[in-house]
Amino acid sequence: MSAPVLLDVRNLSVKFPMARSRMGLGPRRSLNAVSDVSMRVAAGETVGLVGESGSGKSTFGRAILRLGELTRGEVLLDGQDMARARGEDLARLRRETAMIFQDPYGSLNPRLTVRQAIGEVLHVHGKKGAAGRDARIVELLELVGLDATLMDRRPGDLSGGQCQRIGIARALAIEPRLIVADECVAALDVSIQGQIINLLMELGQRMHLGMIFIAHDLAMVRRLCDRIAVMYLGRIVEEGPTEQVFKAPRHPYTRSLIEAIPEIDPARMLPSAPLPGEPPSPVNLPEGCAFHPRCPLARSECRTAVPPFVGGAHRAACILAPGGRLNEVGENLPETTPATPTERIETC
Ligand SMILES: Nc1ncnc2c1ncn2[C@@H]1O[C@H](COP(=O)(O)OP(=O)(O)OP(=O)(O)O)[C@@H](O)[C@H]1O
Ligand SMILES: [Mg+2]
Q1: Are residues 265 and 204 in the same domain?
Q2: pLDDT tens digits, residue range 181-207?
Q3: Residue having the nearest C-alpha atom to atom 24 of ligand 1
Q4: Which region ranges are annotated with the description Disordered (predicted)?
């Protein structure tokens, strides 16, 4: 990564405390939504974050922008830790980062006109005095491909695609340097999705934004993102340059996600269960590699040892991946060869 690091997340964990049983007995348990996740994003770079439902993508996105809980870890923005920032430091985080949400209607106040919805953001962030505000709103609308004649419309008068463009205009109004887009096109028609993705690509390059793009749609991630990170049960299990990961996935979980994209319909969403069985509960994570109960290649040691995350720019947390304990020579994973029956775990 040659551009300077904008965001450097180190060992971030988010645990949600669980309610005690009615009897109030036993230790208090917690749900490990995000465990020990590190990620870097450079200015002008888009990183895709994928994984099954419940893997912790939104929790991670919200935590790094301090819109949600954060239990442990550091979130360095230009080298300054924001994980416990308050006052002026937290205000800087709010000024320099923005989130774009999935539901274009739900994320806008139905009572506010487009002028008021964008004007409010400009006002709160002190971007323009009242005099210059309308001109800036027109500029922002043009930036996201909307006509100034929409200024006095309310969300109810707009299409889903137009609302999402307003959501993006609101995010851009603060002139952020980092955007987290959480499933921001999932609720839109496929044709509109393409337009919004093109818009994000263009804006990302023009404004040199760092972007974390959370999505289920792997084909879209492949088109938009420079790098990709794959999350399973709160951990990143593979990360690397997008084309390298797609062409030679190193973790069996990533491979199963990629194999689930049918070539005839590259825009298809990830199936809710690309592998047999459901992911284990994040309250009771399995010992060793959390993926082992569903892994077609699992060995007995996968049950006991957490695999290290290794491999340089293209890394994976699997003992069979290049640099992993059973593949120190750096070969790709075997195609589909399952482990021998004696090596397999009974629960596979
Ligand atoms: N506020 C909360 N309190 C308790 N548990 C939560 C809370 N928010 C999320 N979780 C749990 O944390 C885990 C991760 O959830 P999260 O919404 O981050 O997943 P996700 O990868 O974004 O899923 P999806 O693809 O469905 O959006 C899930 O088990 C979820 O039930
Ligand atoms: Mg989510």
Answers
A1: no
A2: 999 888 888 888 888 888 888 888 888
A3: 53
A4: 329-348
